[in-house]
């Protein structure tokens, strides 16, 4: 539970050359970087307000969900990373990696060193799916699988890829990422930055069929056209659709008429459906797209997944689905739920356990009584829940920064605002924090690993990078660079 802090007095006006406004941002994914960037470019700063921003992340490397939550073959990942890199490479925002909020630093620590704190910790856990059998061996969270194939430093290096037939539950971009990585041949991922252990695991996978299930119809899917079209780029993987799953109600027709994105996706899916009638299935793997299926039970034997049961659904005229009472079974040996992410509670901050967000009003973090905790804010998925794309994150950050600047004259002044003070605190606690210079070193190291692999495998694919996975190795490489000052 957080406690409102009474404003402290300061003999120096905050925001001047002598005493800049000190802000800590917790989380260096898009939400945190955009918040820091918007603050540095605000009109108040243009008018003379001086700001000093420190960006903290629990991982030794920056970029958050972009590094550890997006499939390595995602077509837009490089563009997003380049945009974040440009912001942090300017030199006006300090990066502190390998610093865990709640363990290495508390809210009280941050309030002592900063005038304002912005939480941008995102959401990394899988949303729960409460159906019988979901706890069986062979039932996994899609987010956990994403963390594995993205080389997350805090998850096991091995993943049990033993199933020939797999069900993926969900119709969002993460579900498509999971299904694409599961069905794609490992050699075709070598051009990405996947770690060596991930390549080795996927190479041994015996998978033949991956089934993706959505509860509603083709016009209600939550993925985007780019991610959908990416499915057709997988070599030696046939896409399979089913005519009985293509149902459109009044709301579907309206969405197709008025929303170009929906129209594009429906056209793509219907074209694939028509084309497969005259196209024999010759690939060694198949990716099945099912609609109008609501999961009701994961079935098993001897504690392991052996199948999954769905109730067929139908659209009710509003784009929503209702059950028909018809049950269908699919034999599978693994089930991945990708029905959404969920935020994690933060120490000393009120948390809404139903929505998985920090309790807030437009980004102003609230205490148990519903009062704004002075100087404490939130942005991104930990503020509004895991919905929306990158564009929404920018608008979200703008709202939070606007509130922070509106509140500026009433913020409690930090007792130790000197830039060196937080470094002294971390060092005194033995925290092996990494820097932006350290990330540049690690970035170059990973690219060098890619070059070495390419040279050793002459005639094979060109690997731009091989991602380092162990946290200790990431820290060692990063701290070999210039020290944080």
Structure description:
By secondary structure, this protein is of the alpha/beta class. It has helices spanning 30-40, 43-46, 65-68, 77-88, 107-113, 142-149, 173-183, 196-203, 225-230, 250-258, 260-276, 381-384, 390-407, 419-428, 436-456, 471-478, and strands spanning 21-26, 51-56, 93-96, 116-119, 125-126, 139-141, 165-169, 209-213, 237-240, 285-290, 293-301, 304-315, 321-331, 334-337, 341-342, 351-352, 357-358, 360-361, 364-366, 372-378. It folds into 2 domains: 21-124 and 343-433, NAD(P)-binding Rossmann-like Domain (Rossmann fold); 126-340, 3-Layer(bba) Sandwich (FAD/NAD(P)-binding domain), CATH 3.50.50. It has 16 helices and 20 strands. The protein has a 7-stranded mixed sheet, with helices on both faces. Strand 19 and strand 20 (372-378) form a beta hairpin. The longest helix is centred in the C-terminal third of the chain and has 21 residues, at 436-456. The chain is globular.
Main beta sheet = 7 strands, mixed
Q: How many E strands? A: 20
Mean pLDDT value: 93
Q: Report the sheet-strand fraction.
A: 15-25%
Q: Return the domain count.
A: 2
Cα distance spanning the termini: 33 Å
CATH superfamily of the largest domain: FAD/NAD(P)-binding domain
CATH architecture of the largest domain: 3-Layer(bba) Sandwich
């Amino acid at each position: 539970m957080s406690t409102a802090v009474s404003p402290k007095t300061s003999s120096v006006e905050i925001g001047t050359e002598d005493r800049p406004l000190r802000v800590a941002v917790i989380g260096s994914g898009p939400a945190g970087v955009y918040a820091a960037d918007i603050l540095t470019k605000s009109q108040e700063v243009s008018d003379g307000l001086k700001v000093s921003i420190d960006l903290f992340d629990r991982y030794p490397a920056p970029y958050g969900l972009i590094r550890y939550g997006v499939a390595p073959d995602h077509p837009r990942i490089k563009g997003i990373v380049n945009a974040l890199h440009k912001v942090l490479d300017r030199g006006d925002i300090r990066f502190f990696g390998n610093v865990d909020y709640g363990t290495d630093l508390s809210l009280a620590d941050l309030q002592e060193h900063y005038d304002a704190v912005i939480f941008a910790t995102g959401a990394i856990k899988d949303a729960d799916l409460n159906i019988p059998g979901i706890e069986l061996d062979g039932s996994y969270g899609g987010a956990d699988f994403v963390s594995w194939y993205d080389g997350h430093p805090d998850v096991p290096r091995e993943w049990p890829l033993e199933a020939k037939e797999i069900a993926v539950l969900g119709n969002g971009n993460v579900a498509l990422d999971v299904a694409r990585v599961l069905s794609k041949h490992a050699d075709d991922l070598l051009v990405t930055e996947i770690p060596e252990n991930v390549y080795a695991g996927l190479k041994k996978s015996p998978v033949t069929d991956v089934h993706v299930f959505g509860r509603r119809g083709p016009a209600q899917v939550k993925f985007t056209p780019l991610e959908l079209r990416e499915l057709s780029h997988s070599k030696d993987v046939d896409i399979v659709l089913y005519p009985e799953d293509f149902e459109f109600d009044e709301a579907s027709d309206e969405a197709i008429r008025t929303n170009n994105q929906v129209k594009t996706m429906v056209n793509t899916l219907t074209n694939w459906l028509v084309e497969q009638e005259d196209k024999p299935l010759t690939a060694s793997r198949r990716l099945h797209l099912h609609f109008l299926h609501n999961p009701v039970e994961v079935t098993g034997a001897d504690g392991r997944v052996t199948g999954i049961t769905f109730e067929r659904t139908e659209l009710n005229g509003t784009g929503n689905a209702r059950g028909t009472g018809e049950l269908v079974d699919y034999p599978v040996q693994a089930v991945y739920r990708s029905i959404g992410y969920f935020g994690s509670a933060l120490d000393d901050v009120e948390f809404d356990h139903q929505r998985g967000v920090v309790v807030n009003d437009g980004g102003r973090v609230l205490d148990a009584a519903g009062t704004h905790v002075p100087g404490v804010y939130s942005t991104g998925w930990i503020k509004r829940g895991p919905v929306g794309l990158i564009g929404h994150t920018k608008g979200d950050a703008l709202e939070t920064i606007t509130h922070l600047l509106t509140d500026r004259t009433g913020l409690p002044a930090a007792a130790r605002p000197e830039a060196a003070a937080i470094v002294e605190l971390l060092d005194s606690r033995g925290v092996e924090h990494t820097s932006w210079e350290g990330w540049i070193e690690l970035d170059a190291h990973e690219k060098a690993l890619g070059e070495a692999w390419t040279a050793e495998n002459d005639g094979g694919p060109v690997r731009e990078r091989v991602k380092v996975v162990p946290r200790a190795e990431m820290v060692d490489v990063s701290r070999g660079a210039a020290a944080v000052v």
